[in-house]
Specification:
single chain, 321 residues, mainly alpha, 68% helix, elongated
Length: 321
């Protein structure tokens, strides 16, 4: 047992007996490091690489990063004999296949070739280790980026929800004092519902594809500007849907019929502490959410209007799903 292994194990046992959280316990990083230290002890004392590898594996002289362990393993792997290379290849090739390393099949053909020599097998083995280490590093980057993106998206959603709900509750609770506040501010509520629909769309989309989103997709599709842009599109879509409904271009039982300059509260609910929104106002908010949520609703509807104008004039119609 090496002094470094004994030190790590001693701290683990001490913390286990004391019942305190294992801040320095044998985690995955420590376990991986111990395996490499054990292999390092088999090198001769006069090996020129031994001191370099010891520095990489020493958490005092080096940061506790996986990159240091990977470099140490690469240096140790170069010194493994052919039997050790074959044994570790069998384990690492399965590990690489499970992780989705695309090069593993091509490397397996070269490694198992009857004409392969000890030198060529070691070169293929070292390449597999390099690809495997890169895959682990990429997976950590993906996880970190997913966490940061989800945090940012949740923060934006919280801000949108809180600001809108505060404005809505103020207007709803003090409508007697503010008179026709709800009716006059209906356009603001419609745009807010468009923002809410856009956020809901982005959140659902990310949640359903979270496991497959990698760094490139997250940076291109869920960057801060992309999220803000999606919210702006949702707000604009809600505003345009509002104009189409108010202009009478969209009509039917599913659409509001109210004159928006008047109060949009149910007249028969005036005796209650909290008056409920009218049916027409509720329809307006629902369509605003749908306009913000659907990325194709408004473009498809505008396309239908364009075709209608070309065919002889606009007509009232319902949005396509």
């Amino acid at each position: 047992m090496t002094n470094e292994f004994a030190s790590v194990l001693g701290k683990y046992v001490k913390q286990s007996r004391s019942g305190r959280p294992q801040e320095w316990g044998i985690d995955l990083w420590d376990s991986y490091r111990i395996d490499l230290i054990t292999e390092l002890d088999r090198l001769s004392a006069d090996d020129p690489e031994k001191e370099t590898i010891q520095k990489l594996l020493n958490p005092v002289q080096s940061e506790r990063t996986w990159e240091k362990l990977y470099e140490a393993e690469q240096r140790l792997a170069y010194r493994r004999d052919d039997n050790e290379v074959k044994a570790d290849w069998a384990r690492r090739s399965v590990e690489a296949q499970n992780l989705g390393v695309k090069s593993v099949e091509a490397l397996r053909v070269q490694f198992t070739d009857a004409a392969a020599t000890e030198i060529s097998r070691k070169a293929v083995y070292l390449r597999l280790l390099d690809d495997l280490h890169f895959r682990y590093a990429k997976r950590r980057l993906d996880r970190q980026t997913r966490k940061q993106t989800a945090t940012w998206l949740n923060t934006v959603g919280l801000i949108v929800c809180v600001l809108g709900l505060v404005a809505f509750l103020v207007g709803w609770s003090f409508q007697q004092t503010l008179k026709n506040y709800l009716g006059q501010a209906h356009l603001i509520y419609a745009i807010w519902c468009g923002l809410l629909g856009a956020y809901f769309s982005s959140s659902v989309s990310m949640r359903t594809t979270l496991a497959t989103l990698d760094y490139d997709l997250l940076v291109s599709g869920y960057s801060k500007w992309s999220v803000v842009q999606r919210l702006l599109i949702g707000g604009i879509a809600a505003f345009l849907i509002y104009l189409l409904i108010a202009g009478g271009l969209l009509a039917g039982d599913l659409f509001p019929k109210a004159v928006y300059s008047k109060d949009l509260l149910n007249p028969d609910a005036s005796a209650k502490i909290f008056d409920i929104p009218s049916v027409d106002f509720a329809k307006l908010l629902v369509w605003s959410v749908i306009a913000g949520f659907s990325e194709r609703l408004l473009p498809d509807q505008l396309g239908r209007f364009e075709n209608s104008i070309r065919d002889g004039g606009p007509e009232r119609q319902r949005p396509s799903n």
